[in-house]
Amino acid sequence: RVLQVQPRAEELSELYRELSQHPGLSTACLGPDLTTQYGGKYCSLYTEWSQRDLARAENIKFCRQYLIFHDGASIVYSGPAGTCSEIKGELLSRESPSGTLKAVLRKVPGKEKEKEKQFLEVWDQNRKVKSIDLTALEKHGSVYDDDQFGCLAWSHSETHLLYVAEKKRPKAESFFQSKAPELGTSDEDTGHPKKEDAAVKVGSPHPGSGGGWLGGNGADQAVPQGEQFVYHEDWGETLTTCSVPVLCVLDIEGNSISVLEGIPEHLSPGQAFWSPEDTGVVFVGWWHEPFRLGLRHCTNRRSALFYVDLTGGRCELLSEDTKAVWSPRLSPDGCRIVYLENNVLGPHQQCSRLCMYDWYTKHTSTVLEAVPRQAQGAFPGIYCGALPGMCWAADSRRILLDTAQRSQQDVFVVDTATGATTSLTADTPQGSWSVLTIDRDLLVARFSTPSCPPMLKVAVLPAAGHEAQAQWICLQDAPPVPGISWGIRTLQPPPEQEHPQYAGLDFDAILMRPSEGPTAQKPPLVVMPHGGPHSVFTAGWMLYPAALCRVGFAVLLVNYRGSLGFGQDSVASLPGNVGTQDVRDVQLCVERVLQEETLDASRVALVGGSHGGFLSCHLIGQFPDTYRACVVRNPVVNIASMVAATDIPDWCLTETGLPYTPEALPDPAQWTEMLHKSPMRYVDRVRAPVLLMLGEDDRRVPPKQGLEYYRALKARGVPTRLLWYPGNNHALAGVEAEADGFMNMALWLLKHLQC
């Protein structure tokens, strides 16, 4: 059903409620192979999904299991096993290598005035066998459950668990703290156990030798005075509780916890796993001197791969120490580690290299280089935030990954010995594919399109050389949302807008439009440039565009030059040209679509967040006659005023085309250049009504950016409204903020486009 003209708020909310109920698929895990009495093989598939619960104003997680019968070469039968079940309190979970045990990090509300607690649990196939109150032990701070540092890794022997937590910080006292008088009693006198006796013991042998852990016992330290208000750096947007991560180990059999020592003090460790033979731990270490910069979505921070030996305490560098590395994955035979690598600084997202470290020869090789430009039908390059948690084929030679390929996302298999790549999704319909896991060559993936919510797909990885013959089977279908049609178009800038160094670059846009209803013949147009700027719209399910299309708008998603998936040359073409090249690309796309499609050129609006908000504010100032309304979420409006307040000051200089060094201060000419490239330069020309949505806790684009624009517009008499969302950061992804944001956005567009 497409909404009629002038829909009531009740109809909009009902539409949003309907579309927001489509769940997202986040995790998949394959159980061990079992044999039937007739000799057939089958395994269980455990999946986790997330869904918005508007009544509870929260995202809920639920699990669903499936059975897969296969003969090793093909899937014979697959289907669901039981119904969905909500998951409560789980922060991390991980199956053991054999599949017989499962570790769970769980948060539990504290009683009365107690703070929330964290428990580390171990389950076997029948019951919970361990439950350890990590909060009560006070060996470290909160365990990291993010995907930047966090991990929960089983040792190969399945006797130890490795995780990352915040370093224990001594409780500071005032210089004037009153001390309780000594009463002359001891723990023995009162009969209470000592704190260290009440907790599990610390310091047990590691799983590979008879030696001891390199770990402190977490003993109470002297309480420092005058340090109550010392500033502690953090890792920025979404990582504000992460400051000094430490590697921690639970000895399951010995009931002991150790905090590993031997990590150099200038490094913050994360993404850790056990080395072959459990002799030590491999981890990524990020440099945090001279100060921490924001890390979320920043794959250009100096980091390297390290190994810490648990017997001698030696910390060894495994990769170059002048690059940015992340996402290390150990092969099933324990011989090789693949990881992703970028250059330090420069664009936050780039075309990445795939590197491999041989554990026994100590040799490092580059499997895949960055791709300057994609040749017709060739591999596009790697543009992904991380490799799948399990990405190796059973032969320990091939790996699976997904990556943007222009405006799609596809799955590729990479031969690490030869660097050969093969698409596993080339013959499938256009859309967005993501690898969830591969185990024993059973491959699990997610697929969606702009008109179809995520569905679950499975396949058997064919033998080497025959990968293109992969047969995908849909295990959990999601029927297409009616009333939406879409397509991808490619645009070439005119000669006068070509980049002098990177000529010949083109770009894409995804056009969604209503296929039924009163506006289907000539709908108004909503233009949405993406943020980043080095990110990309892929042809997958997106709630806001789908909902706007169902309201009756055509939606244009623009992947301007500088987007990922089009080669490193495209990425490199944008720094120094923000506010001109990207703006002109979007405007060219809008003008071309209005010429070639039956759209209402008198009713065009902009919606954008972050750098998409930057472009939207530029466009309503540079091309005021084109746009009738604008909605921006946490927009960059003044790079010069943002540089001193953001968690990514390097972004401000890099995208302006200026060099960044931690010690450098912008000179007057550089301040001028940053302001010159900002939307604030064109604020006097803005006529379109503007709705601003700001997250109070945004560390990336601080809300003062939006306030600055709000005041400038108000002073010039431009109709302006500002929505302020407490408890929300840059993404404005809280369920309540996201729902309220859609309602206000839709009503603003309907009002000012006079629909």
Automatic annotation (TrEMBL):
Main location: cytoplasm
Name of one Pfam family that matches: Peptidase_S9
Gene: Apeh
Protein localization: Cytoplasm
Annotated ranges, domain Acylamino-acid-releasing enzyme N-terminal: 12-192, 231-473
GO molecular function: omega peptidase activity; serine-type endopeptidase activity
Annotated stretches, region: Disordered: 176-205
Catalytic activity: Cleavage of an N-acetyl or N-formyl amino acid from the N-terminus of a polypeptide
Entry similarity comment: Belongs to the peptidase S9C family.
Protein name, entry field: Acylamino-acid-releasing enzyme
Composition-biased stretches (Basic and acidic residues): 189-199
Annotated Peptidase S9 prolyl oligopeptidase catalytic domain residues: 547-754
